[in-house]
Design brief:
Blueprint lengths: L2 H30 L1 H12 L12 E2 L5 E6 L2 E6 H5 L1 H21 L3 H9 L2 H19 L3 H35 L18 E8 L1 H13 L4 E5 L2 E3 L7
Antiparallel strand pairs: 1-2, 2-6, 3-4, 3-5
Helix pairs in contact: 4-5, 4-6
């Protein structure tokens, strides 16, 4: 057998091995894992959206309204906006965009902070515009707003402290042991990445103003439907 035929035979053998391996992989995915993967693929096609429940009016035989739905909205602010971390993140993003990813990677941490500090006043001003708008349209003073924001921060920080302590203890048992040392990085809890209600029971026109603000500055606030049930004859004097 010539050298050419030996090389051709070796090449054909390698091709057959590849075909067999690919066939085995196809068989494993289609026969042994087919049902599971089909279920996963089909589930990704479904999107569940919970719609608010609307109920009609209830009237008595004389036409008096006994119960009805009242349109109402609430404004929820992102937690990072409440704490001020949003402005810091936006300033850093703007600085990174200005000099590019490669230039940003060459800067030290201190240099990055200096760059971001140049953009920080702009985003802090946007936060203050939001607080002013909430006070004006929500008809509350700044002290009341600050009190609401402080209550939200205290509640979330208290919850985070408990959860992070559990995370730390779990990581210590799993990786560190009693005498082990490791760098613990807490995972944010849901409330630290969610929005929190600061205004409720808003009329349609007020909600529309906040909705315009939300569209012009994505990621700061969320306007939610919060319609409520009214019972005009619940109390009769």
């Amino acid at each position: 057998m010539s050298m050419f035929h030996r090389r051709l035979l070796l090449l054909m053998t390698l091709v057959m091995v590849v075909i067999v391996l690919l066939g085995a992989q196809v068989g494993r995915l289609s026969i042994f894992e087919g049902d599971q993967r089909r279920s996963i693929a089909e589930s990704s096609l479904d999107r569940v959206t919970y719609l608010p429940t609307y109920r009609g009016r209830i009237i008595d035989r004389k036409g008096n309204v006994l119960a009805r739905d009242r349109a109402s909205y609430e404004v929820a602010v992102d937690y990072d906006v409440i704490t001020g971390d949003w402005a810091l993140a936006q300033a850093e993003r703007a600085a990174r965009k200005e000099i590019g990813r490669e230039g940003w990677s060459e800067l030290s941490r201190h240099e990055r902070q200096q760059r971001a500090a140049q953009f920080l006043p702009k985003f802090e001003d946007e936060r203050q515009q939001l607080w002013t708008m909430i006070c004006l349209l929500g008809e509350i003073d700044r002290d009341e707003l600050n009190d609401r924001l402080d209550r939200i921060k205290r509640r979330v920080e208290s919850m985070a402290a408990v959860v992070h302590d559990r995370q730390r203890q779990s990581a210590l048992r799993e990786y560190g042991g009693e005498s082990g040392t490791f760098e613990f990085i807490p995972r944010p809890i849901y409330e630290q990445e969610a929005t929190h209600v600061v205004l409720d029971q808003l009329r349609d026109d007020i909600a529309l103003e906040f909705n315009r603000f939300a569209q012009s500055r994505p990621g700061m606030i969320e306007v939610r439907d919060a319609h409520r049930r009214e019972y005009p004859w619940e109390r009769v004097e």
